Amino acid sequence: MGLDIGATKTLGVRLDDDGRVLEQVREPTEPGPEGILRTAAQVVTDLGSAASIGLGIPGLVDPERGAVKHAVNLGVDGEWVPLRAELEQRLGVSVAVENDVNVATLGAVALSGIRDLVYLSIGTGLAAGLVLDGTLRRGATGAAGEIGHVPIDPSGALCQCGQRGCLETVASGRALAEAWPSGDEPPAQALFAAAAAGDVKAIAVRDRFAAGVADAVRTLCLSVDPTTIVLGGGVAHLGAPLVEAVADALRAQAAASPFLTSLDLAARIRAVPADQPVAAIGAALLGRP
Ligand SMILES: [Zn+2]
């Protein structure tokens, strides 16, 4: 069983032995440590009994202890919340806890069968998960893949992390929403539709956003050279138009460089399957003994 705990909703899946989704439920996420525990327990109850549970959650996760902190959107501050210990006590089943981008990366590996893959999550923020030669790379302090906080523009906007001109200030759902306010409509869809219809301003905003995502892809490829980069997160619901825009930006960036051209980065990107709960699937697989 796998749970993807998000700021507004928690998605749960039950998988068969081959990793296919048998059942899927969602519940609104209650904020705060006790709210998260209640929500998780409710989703598990909805899905019935499980041999093991894996759980993906935003924030800083200590997978050894199964604890999380700094999940700001979930009402979890700088105090460690011992999710695994609390849930194991309540549910009587073994529980594994991992960062949400990392479980989505494991899910993307399982769905694609590719064991050397970077998952670039373009959600509210921008972060990557790395599976290299089949192994999840967390880093010495869990900061591997924090690509959103690579500064690219010394005169750019101030980032929430305190630096200036981070990739996240250009290539994230938040940056896109600020650059293209769209009322009730999702900003990414509104922007790409306006650009496709020939709106000159929208084309400029879209291309700047795509160039930022391409910067992230290029940096990741030059760091760890994965066979595949999967674009995920809320903005990736755009699907093919996003992949095309980023591929165009990658080709433009490579135009003056035979070296970059030889790496053919544009051919390595794809969008995560829109109809698959990739993070919950990855969480379920993580939880398996
Ligand atoms: Zn930053």
UniProtKB/TrEMBL annotation:
<comment type="similarity">
    <text>Belongs to the ROK (NagC/XylR) family.</text>
</comment>
<dbReference type="InterPro" id="IPR043129">
    <property type="entry name" value="ATPase_NBD"/>
</dbReference>
<dbReference type="Pfam" id="PF00480">
    <property type="entry name" value="ROK"/>
</dbReference>
<dbReference type="InterPro" id="IPR000600">
    <property type="entry name" value="ROK"/>
</dbReference>
<protein>
    <submittedName>
        <fullName>ROK family protein</fullName>
    </submittedName>
</protein>
